[in-house]
Amino acid sequence: MKKKTVAVCMANIDEQYNDVFLHRFRKFAEENDINLLYFYSFSAFYFMDSHDIGERKIYRLINYDILDALVIFPVTILDDDILTGIVNDANQKGIPVIAIDRELEGCISVCIDDLEAIYKITSHMIEEHHVKNINFIAGCKGESCSEARIEAYKRALQDHNLEVDERRIDYGDFWNGPTLEAMQRFVDSGIPMPEAVVCANDVMALAVEEFLEQRGFQVPQDIMITGYDGIPEAVNHQPHIATAGRDITEVTRQVFDILKELFDGKTFPDNYIHKIDANLQLYGSCGCERETVKNQNALVHSLCLWQAEMKYFMMDQIRMSASLTKATNFAEVFDGIMQSTAKLNDEYIMICIVDNFMDEEEFSDIVENSMAQHTGYSSRMNRVLYRKHGVWQGMIDYNTNDLLPDLDEILDDCGSLCFFPLHIHAQTVGYAVISIDEDTADIIRYYEFFLNVCNALDMSKTQRRQQTIIENLENKYVHDPLTGLFNRRGFYMNIKSDFEKCVEEQQKFKLLSVDLNGLKVINDTYGHADGDIAISTIAKALQASGGMNDCCARFGGDEFIVAGPENDNDTGELLIEKVHRYLDEFNASSGKPYQVDASIGLVSLKPDRSISLEEIIKEADERMYREKVKYHKQRQ
After folding, report:
1. How far apart are CA 27 and CA 16, in angstroms?
2. DSSP string covering 493-515, please?
3. How far apart, in Å, are the Cα atoms of 243 and each of 114, 115, 356?
4. Which pTM does this prediction carry?
């Protein structure tokens, strides 16, 4: 039987429990013979600025046609539009969705019973410690989960025949700063200090403990404190913050039990909610006695080790960034990235880029910004970098719906892959893929690494665009826009070396001064558009007639110059004949009511140091004017 494939949607590098869940899921997936595809945004979508817009595109990459189920972590994705979009897309495809830690419409929800936990914590303070005056610090005012926790606190008081005093309830927004402000408001109110403070999460409990100790209160001797969540800082604090934590292993087990039932054909009621009891840890700051930290030295050592590892990783990233700034093209960028992945232990690492990102751009596309600026994924992708078991593979393009060209083969080998967004602000660059195993590092490290990758790709693309702009400006600087010939500046820049060579080697040099006859009459009689046709025709005649080493230029108006080395097969006289023959053929077939003709003055000589290029041009001009006089006399 083919292995089932489950997508997992997560976000936010700040959530430590993401990393724990990521590894727990991998372990249970292996045991249950399930493939996992993580779609992971580094942002939690607090601001929805251009960076967040680029991050959210990773969830549009999901191909629901290859999935058997989807698991989502709503508490990490702080944008309901994203959550609703993912769930609706899955529902439309008939893909069951399991939401963790939050009840979500259209999903099977697996949640810690946090309301019951708050009720039990508050009841514990009343029953075991006999307190009556209990303050409560909730989260954000008006937020459903925050208001529900207040109701759980009130219910505990009421069930124990204690009065609910609304003055003892405030909001700390689940963060330390607002919690300190809430505590100060309470002190300023003049109400007697509480015997205990129950907080809706551990971060606020730690802030309350800081506030009280700064004012001379001892915890728990003077005032008891409890929190919720069981974060590492709280459970390793002295005193231990009495709390209730998520048993991530048990949550994961329940999720995979539900997946197994779904795959066996079981159906669940709409919006089914599966509640799991919180892991109560009521000791320490609530006054209950228990050994809270078994090995303080081991804890300090592990924290210092992690800090050292992060320090060296950051130094590596700084070196990587500095190295990639020296890259002059995409090939050098990719080479730098390959060298920088040496310290990432993942068996599979892939960089996949949207179609057209690396294509050459025309100057007009850059100016008009008309080149495709992807704000999503193109229909085809390019896997430009691919490391498999330490060996780099070749580049390949593929259909984006396939996610990877050899997805099934890779999943058969590793079982779990994580897809991360690559973008420059809102513009989608592509996505990165790594395999998840027991050696996979903290997610924050990949954020730093892939941010460097995006910056390097952006810099390389910008440098290429700048070069195109510079080349175009240089081209305009030395070329005549109407004819494409060199202008006066371009002529002198390009003919100088040929002239010097002829002087040094005593080789013959030719220079022709060419003047379009009757331009004013054509402009006045037929209009400037026809005047431009006449000018362009002279330019084409000179280009078609000149030799490979001849330099053709328009000096302005109706004046042209042709110059270059001369030999027996490329004489000035032969060039003049070719020009007149070209013009005769044009006049015979153009259908124009006027003739395009030119007067040409030729100087042919072996130049030496006694004569300058300007003097040769002046002599050629004088000979051209003599030819023009003859032309006008013939016209009369």
Report:
1. 18
2. HHHHHHHHHHHHHT--EEEEEEE
3. 11, 13, 53
4. 0.76
